[in-house]
Amino acid sequence: MINDMSAGYIWTIIIVLGVGTYLIRFSFLGLIGGKDLPEWVLRHLRYTAVAVLPGLVAPLVLWPAANGGDVEPARLSAALVTFAVGLLTRNVVAAITLGGVTLFGMIWLLGAY
Amino acid sequence: MSGATQKSYYWLGFRTGVPFLLVVVPFGLLFGVIATEAGFTSIQTMAFSSVVFAGAAQFTALQLMAEDAPFLIIIATALAVNLRMAMYSASLAVWLGKAPLWKRALIAYVNVDQSYAVSINRFEDEPDLTLSQRISFFFGAVTPVCPMWIVATGLGIWVGDTIPDWMALDFAVPICFLAIIAPMMRTLAHMIAAVVSIVLALALAGLPYNLGLLVAAAVAMIVGAQVEILMDRRAAK
Question: What residues in A contact B23, CB-CB < 8 Å?
Answer without folding.
Answer: 92-93, 96
